[in-house]
Amino acid sequence: MPVPLSSDTPAVSCDIFCNVIDNYGDIGVSWRLARQLANEFGLAVRLWVDDLASFVRLCPEAVAALQSQHKRGVEVRLWGASFADVQPAQVVIDAFGCALPEAYLAAMNAESIWINLEYLSAEDWVEGCHKLPSPRPPLTRYFFFPGFTPQTGGLLLERDLLARRDAFLSDPLQQQAFWESAGMEMPPADTLKISMFAYENAALAGLFDAWAKGARAVLCLVPEGRILPQVLHYFGHEGDDGRSFTRGMLTVRVLPFVAQESYDELLWACDVNFVRGEDSCVRAQWAGKPFIWQIYPQHDAVHWQKLQAFLNRYDAPLSPAARHALPDLWRAWNDEGDAGQAWNAFADVLGELNVRARTWACALAENTLALNLLDFIQEIGKIRALKIEG
Ligand code: TRH
Q: How does pLDDT run across 337-384, given as a tens digit for each residue?
């Protein structure tokens, strides 16, 4: 636990650098970490982003044309202009190994605490690489790996998230407010509610067919994004701006892409969540509901090893039926195979998967990334007086 030092010591300054490669995962993780370090631990955080248009999708009150703005306790800066006059912060975090600007790097010194926040993986090798130093005289850069075991950096989890989730789940008024804000009535209790945040996927039509022909009503909520053209194609509505479609037992509603804080409510309100990439996958785990992960595909196909490594951890305590059904659907979804066929076996074990999702979230909550990161910062910077509230 980070220790607050003397009250007259100034707040620790922290620069987070985010190079948006594609989609929203890089900025999603960086923005979440920046907010938490600033608001829960009192660090003075600057977030440097090279693509403010992507940032604005997650934080709609921000303005893409502004070089500098303060949002939710964080100073958000466009990473693009010259760094000649920028004084480096005490703690420097490059998200996902992005290369720091040369002028900024030159201004850092041996006292700078430099951390490379890595991508999330459940693979075993992560434990051996977590916290490893990489000397770059006179600087040292440290690898910090998120992960699923106590020997890793853990996962990003806001202090009050699980309490807010439980309050939402036990309060029909909050749930009703969610459905109203999405422009819908609260669905009947026996309707299966599914959120669908996904990349393009040829398996979609087979899955929709299974839901349409199934015995149970399905309401599928699709945030606007990469899978939307296929949804419209399935219902024969290409080029349409329709928001609601029905076939058989399946109703699909298209939802706007919401601010990052609001996305959690969608996951909590649904019974099953389809997620992708990194950050939404972690949020689905905190939701404590069964989920299907569409992993970010890599050219060399190493994502299959990552997917399997996660399944090995998640599946271990399941019954033989569930240990068969869950990976089958995940593989079919990621391989663009027959997800419709795999769905039925998955649906049969939903009760067991619900229990597993809750216990998994409880166990993971013991190991949170921001706390681990601040402990590590104090460890490597202990000769200096760091004041970290919390
Ligand atoms: O967008 P992603 O696919 O992100 C990525 C990137 O491709 C990245 O380059 C890659 O390295 C990484 O995956 C593994 O999926 P992800 O990580 O889930 O990020 C989506 C973010 O969008 C997440 O923070 C949640 C947020 N979000 C909203 O804020 N509002 C919404 O309505 C939805 C659906 C998501």
A: 999 999 999 999 999 999 999 999 999 999 999 999 999 999 998 645
Range list of β-strands (E), the chain: 13-18, 44-49, 68-71, 74-78, 91-95, 113-117, 133-136, 139-144, 192-196, 218-223, 244-247, 250-255, 272-276, 291-294
208/355 same-domain check: yes
Q: Are residues 305 and 356 in the same domain?
A: yes
**Protein residues whose CB sits closer than 6 Å to any atom of ligand 1:** 21-26, 28, 58, 197, 223, 257-258, 260, 263, 276-280, 296
Task: Count CA within 13 A, CB hemisphere, residue 324.
Answer: 6
Domain range for 293: 161-364
Structure tokens that stand for 209 in this block? 């067919």
| Spatial CB neighbours of 30, under 8 Å, sequence gap ≥ 6 | 16, 18, 47, 49, 95
Residue 379 CA, ligand 1 centroid: distance in Å: 31
Q: To test the ligand 1 pocket, which listed residue (18, 23, 35, 117) has its Cβ within 8 A of the most ligand atoms?
A: 23
Active centre residues (catalytic): 26, 278
pLDDT at 252: 97
Q: pLDDT per residue over 126-160, tens digit each?
A: 999 999 999 999 999 999 999 999 999 999 999 99
Q: 351 in helix, strand or coil?
A: helix
Residues 180 and 62 in one domain: no
148 and 168 co-located in one domain: no
Q: If you average pLDDT over residues 260-274, what whole number do you get?
A: 98
Residues in the chain: 390
Q: Which two tokens stand for residue 201?
A: 């996927």
Ligand 1, residue 260: give the atom nearest the CA: 29
Q: Is residue 8 a part of any domain in this protein?
A: no
Q: What is the mean pLDDT of the chain?
A: 94
Q: What is the DSSP letter of 11?
A: B
Residues 220 and 341 in one domain: yes
Q: How far is the CA of 375 from the centre of ligand 1 (A)?
A: 27
| Per-residue CA distances from 327 to 43, 166, 316, 344 (Å) | 41, 28, 12, 13
**CA 71 to ligand 1 center in whole angstroms:** 19
Whether 27 and 42 map to the same domain: the answer is: yes
Q: What percent of the chain has pLDDT over 70?
A: 94
Among 257, 278, 292, residue to substitute to test ligand 1 (most atoms within 8 Å of Cβ): 278
